[in-house]
Design goal:
Elements (H helix, E strand, L loop, with lengths): L1 E4 L9 E4 L2 H9 L5 H7 L4 H11 L2 E4 L18 H11 L1 H6 L2 E5 L15 E3 H9 L6 E5 L2 E3 L11 E9 L8 H7 L2 E10 L23 E8 L3 H8 L10 E7 L2 H8 L6 E5 L16 E10 L5 E2 L1 H11 L6 E10 L7 H13 L3 H8 L7 E8 L7 H15 L2 H5 L1 E5 L2
Parallel strand pairs: 3-4, 4-6, 5-7, 6-8, 8-9, 9-10, 10-11, 11-12, 12-13, 13-15, 15-16, 16-17
Antiparallel strand pairs: 1-2, 13-14
Helix pairs in contact: 1-3, 2-3, 4-6, 8-9, 10-12, 11-13
Length: 419
């Protein structure tokens, strides 16, 4: 931006001064979450356009429907929905150079009211062209997309890397294989989230139509699987992904015997999270050195005979805890039965009694094997009365745990409650 220095009573001609671009960038960075201000800044001068665009077009959602509007009534209906997105990117160099987060979802144009209007398909060729047109893209989110596999070029080889891929509610048209075929397009993914694949019929009914690597190529640092067939997904991922490169695994399910083989092949894993189950044997990760462990189980609060999976958590920790463990999180899903009265005092008394009956000494003996523990978290998930008693639950659990645990563990103890 040009500023003119005007000096009164001076015969010298006015001198244009240019504000340093670094100062412009720093000023605009303060407005990163103020869209109206950023739009005004982009109209000031050419020097301000690039910095404003970095924040204005950092995130792109297609179709561009309002978040709260379930049925977009725009003119993006039909099979060319995502082709229109590609055309827009091809015509705008500013978009291509600034989009870092891309969200793609099926077009719900009155889809619930008119069954003849279906969601737009997303062919692999169009999806891959969209990704390739965004050189600074770091995060890709697919929500309810109808993936259509296609035969790739003969010389195709995955080279693209992303920091994060999030896949939620993917419709199955060519089988679950379509989602895994899509992942074979990439060389490396920092964080992969797979949540709730929507499918019908046999999971493995369709053969792969896309890239078939000669061996595992995809490198994943962090993997989260929730609400899907974890066993099927992990077994299929093992054909394209290098599990030896995986560092963080988050399974929001019980680890059955079918999951033991793929999980135990993750020799460099540093953190693991799963739901415990007494009927399943613990996972033996002999070659891995875990720095963080997150385990969750239920705790039934009762006046008569309380029950919990505390002993199962202790059993699994006996296998998983090493001297290098730095963070341990135990999620306690609190459930009640008919023996608990509706009064708050009776409910809190039953909780305190149930916590005192836990085998804290065995738990402390296992956790104390770690020489590097910096944080021990007890996470209370209140399913009895989610909207009340959270603060009193935390206070009661903190006092009981501090008395039952040795001083070194009590110093790193933290009790939280999430309703």
């Amino acid at each position: 931006m040009d500023f003119t220095a005007v000096y009164a009573h001076s015969p010298v001609r006015a001198v244009p001064l240019r504000l340093a671009q670094e100062l412009v960038d720093m000023t605009i960075d303060y407005l990163h979450d103020d869209r109206d201000a950023l739009m005004q800044c982009s109209l000031v001068c050419r020097d301000w356009v690039h910095s404003s665009s970095l924040h204005l077009f950092n995130r792109m959602r297609w179709p561009p429907c309002p978040k709260k509007q379930k049925a977009c009534l725009g003119a993006l209906d039909g099979d060319d929905c995502f082709s229109s997105c590609l055309d827009l990117l091809s015509a705008s160099r500013r978009l291509r150079s600034t989009v870092r987060v891309l969200q793609l979802s099926c077009h719900k144009c009155a889809i619930q009211r008119d069954t003849s209007r279906r969601s737009a398909p997303l062919p692999f060729s169009v999806l891959f062209s969209i990704i390739e047109s965004l050189p600074v893209l770091r995060t890709l989110e697919l929500h309810e997309c109808r993936l259509l596999p296609e035969t790739p070029p003969a010389d195709f080889y995955p080279t693209r890397s992303l920091d994060k891929i999030k896949i939620t509610y993917i419709w199955r048209q060519a089988g679950w294989q379509a989602t895994l075929d899509f992942l074979s397009l990439f060389r490396r993914v920092g964080s992969l989230h797979i949540h709730s694949l929507l499918s019908s019929g046999s999971r493995a009914s369709s053969p792969s139509l896309y890239f078939e690597p000669s061996g595992p190529v995809l490198e994943i640092d962090s993997l989260t699987i929730r609400g899907v067939g974890e066993t099927y997904v992990l077994n299929r991922l093992s054909a394209i992904a290098k599990f030896s490169a995986l560092k963080h695994l988050n399974l929001q399910c019980h680890v059955s015997s079918d999951l033991r083989e793929p999980v135990q092949s993750m020799t460099n894993i540093r953190s693991i999270s799963y739901d415990v189950e007494g009927s399943y044997p613990p996972i033996a990760l002999r070659e891995a050195t875990l720095h963080a462990i997150h385990l969750s189980g239920y705790f039934r609060v009762s006046r008569s005979v309380p029950s919990s999976e505390w002993d199962t958590i202790t059993r699994d920790l006996d296998i998983l805890v090493t001297r290098e463990l730095q963070e341990l999180r135990v999620v306690m899903h609190l459930e009640g039965d008919k023996t608990i009265h509706e009064t708050k005092d009776d409910e809190l008394h039953c909780l305190e009694q149930s916590l005192m009956d836990l085998n804290w000494s065995a738990f402390a003996a296992v956790v104390s094997r770690s020489c590097s523990l910096r944080l021990l978290t007890l996470d209370l998930r209140n399913h009895i009365h989610p909207k009340r008693m959270s603060d009193k639950y935390v206070v009661a659990a903190r006092e009981i745990a501090a008395k039952r645990l040795p001083a070194p563990l009590a110093r790193v103890l933290r009790v939280v409650s999430i309703s």
